[in-house]
């Protein structure tokens, strides 16, 4: 692990040849994997070149421009609400590198009278930025109503980049040092006007696309970026608000999604039509290497590199390659795991049925989450998702009437649950202010004051359990916490009693899920996960292998279930350094809401296909429903859809059930 900036710089100073050094970023820490890998493009050992210089000298072939346009658009979408957008993206902050000449071409390379050289430039973009002075007025995500004809600087900056890529050759007119600075209003308005006027020209875009429909598609893409109504919803007949009012209510994540639909997807389709994208939607260099319009040699002056921008790269700037976020491979796989559920035919059917079937609309599966609360201002909780949040109750000392989370644990847990059980109605109980309160009784009770404090928190959780089934009608209760053992209050096991009471009052038709533990063999399975009435959940990676943080299973008991619990993306607090964006976390606390969400999907599917399931499984009507809604029935269902990895370890996913459901529907 690299523990200081000097160690990182020392790593970069190591010359290991024309290969890449492999590092991994996990929980904001950099690990040197002590491994080298081959690189697709061997760039010259020279300074990077600003895109503005490349365009002025017409160094890119038309196809390279299209690849660059797609990569830039995808990067802006990916980093839309991150620190990478704190500097205005321009042709001067985007850099390219020269390709290294092949050996047989070395003898042909010669400097001309201007001291330059003829080299090809690779299209892959790099983003250079200073660590100081990172805030410009144009880099706020949305400008206020006023003297701006375009209110979204990130999108306008992308539009300007795409527009200039569509020019045959960029003008060499630049702002010279010492010239008076223009106002933000002038820069924004002039750029918007330039794009809107330019896209109407018959000579634009000159980007090498052969078919008129492709040229028109690129024109529409860039026009969308410069449009005043880029994020304005269309007017409907039954609308009670104006389009501008609806635009004002859009959350940043909703605007980001619209950017993806209006800009990134059309560009992706252009590259797909050209055969340059693989099945994952990534550019496949092996498919475009042979294209004779990729790049061309051009004169690169020794003075063409931006000395003012990259003179002290190792000290003041960071260069991010290809617009690819430096996240661990595992976290990307975890996101793909969740996406497979979201995009499955099963998820689409549940959404359609519960949304459009009037009878089913009031019969959604109900899940109660007991945790540290949630932050309603986190990016994840957009307007549509908030519709699924049906109840809130704060059981802490200073009860809040609206959603609140001071820790972030509950916010992350809730967002993970809602990614899986997207159609369920969710009820949130805040039973602790932070994780130290959640875990309070893991400490030894040393005196009466501690006993009373610990007892109060157990009473809190007991009350929350009763609220969940009695007031919310919860079908599932998710608890991402645990204790070394159950502490009695007034000689009573209050949490166990609350669970037993819930089962009694609901005719056992309620499911409890709890996190097992997170300390490997150093801690046994915790309470209430070790209760026979509760599903104890452990964590796996995206392929189903158990993780070292899991406690060992009880080999005398039934199968223990595990599901995705490693590097799972979920919401952060809006007041945190992540500003409400997704962060990745691992543990049984993360796996628990996923398991609860899987159960909710199974119950939802059973509710929709009640008759078909009875006929297919040859169950009597009442037995079928009652067994699945009870722990015994759900346990059998879990066993049927799970994969046994090793003895007693069953990996829970929906892949088997999704295939089975396709045959039943």
TrEMBL record:
GO molecular function, one term: serine-type endopeptidase activity
Domain Peptidase S8/S53: 363-604
PROSITE patterns the UniProt entry points to: SUBTILASE, SUBTILASE_SER
Domain DUF7580: 63-271
Record keywords, A-Z: Hydrolase, Protease, Serine protease
Active-site residue list: 371 (charge relay system), 409 (charge relay system), 589 (charge relay system)
Residues passing through the membrane, by range: none
Span list, region Disordered: 99-118
Family: Belongs to the peptidase S8 family.
UniProt protein name: Peptidase S8/S53, subtilisin/kexin/sedolisin
